[in-house]
Amino acid sequence: MIKNSKGSRKAKELLLEIGFEEITDIPMDIFVAGLGATLIEIPLKNSDGKIVRGNSKTLIKINSEIQFEERKRFTIAHEIGHFLLHSKLDLGAHNETSNTLNWFNTTVQQAKKGIQEWEANDFASELLMPEDLIRKETFRKKFSPDLVKNLSIRFKTSLTSIIYRLLSLDIYPLFVVFVNKGVVRYWSKSNNFWIKVKNITKLSPPEDSVALEYIDANYEYLYSGNEKAQQIYKSIWFELKDDEDDSDFFEYCIPTKQYETIISVIWEK
Predict the structure, then answer these.
(1) CB 197 within 8 A of CB 238
(2) Chain-centre distance for alpha carbon 209
(3) 2 pLDDT band (50/70/90 cuts)?
(4) Contact predicate 247/268, CB 8 Å
(5) CA distance 267 to 231
(6) Closest Cα partner for 10 from 114, 123, 137?
């Protein structure tokens, strides 16, 4: 995972400058206008958002057909990051897609797209989910699907964004897998997650994993309430040491049928 704090530093500086701990309740069009740009929502073909810089004005365009408000907010925050961090020459012709906004990419993939995308995502994450507040909201609370849901509502961001935030801040020891079209594309883990991962990249999720259940169910939701955290064995995703007994873990999946994706979170019981 790329370690670059330019984006988050800029977001912290911005919040300090405007005198707000967070912008959760500020309408995004008003926030953008206060920064000297204009936000418009229009249908965009093959794009979630784009930034257009003129000689004296800057437009941030967001696809009005994005279904979820949380995704719109993150896309807007991402474009604000480009506006404040990167020049017109840095970006060139620039459109945001699900690929540029996807946190769960390998370092190689991120490098191909340019460090600017990482920085803009990092900026958006800190702007919408400030580190100090995330740590406060999770203090002495166990990780669970309900916690992720409550944080998502609290900060008006997606479940996926919350999971990545918890992962990147090392608040909990988590292992997170991104599955697309039935294949494990990327995975990441907290720095404090000291377990050896099986060879899973570019393969179908392991037998007996919850992720595979969701693929077999055509990405439909299978569990609700407390059952979202399904108990599994450690050996399903991880290698056991010599003479090590198997142990209990949990797996929690977020499927998105539209894109045939699954975010799978695994942690120790």
Answers:
(1) yes
(2) 22
(3) low
(4) yes
(5) 10
(6) 123
Nearest CA to 165 out of 223, 100, 121 is that of: 121
Residues 6+ apart with CB under 8 A from 41: 61, 62, 63, 64, 72
Summarised one tens digit per residue, pLDDT across range 191-205 is 989 999 999 999 999
CA distance 146 to 152: 10
Long-range CB pairs of 141-147, under 8 A, 24+ apart, other chains included = 143/172, 143/174, 143/267, 144/229, 145/228, 145/229, 145/252
Nearest CA-CA partner of 2 in 160, 111, 133: 111
pTM: 0.90
Give the span between the Cα atoms of 93 and 174, in whole angstroms.
36
- The C-alpha atoms of residue 47 and residue 64 are separated, in whole angstroms, by 10
What crossing angle do the helices spanning 6-18 and 115-128 adopt, rounded to 10°? 40
Strand order in the sheet with 175-180: 183-189, 175-180, 261-268, 248-256, 230-233
CB neighbours (10 Å) of residue 267?
19
Pick the closest to residue 231 from 109, 120, 144 (CA basis): 144
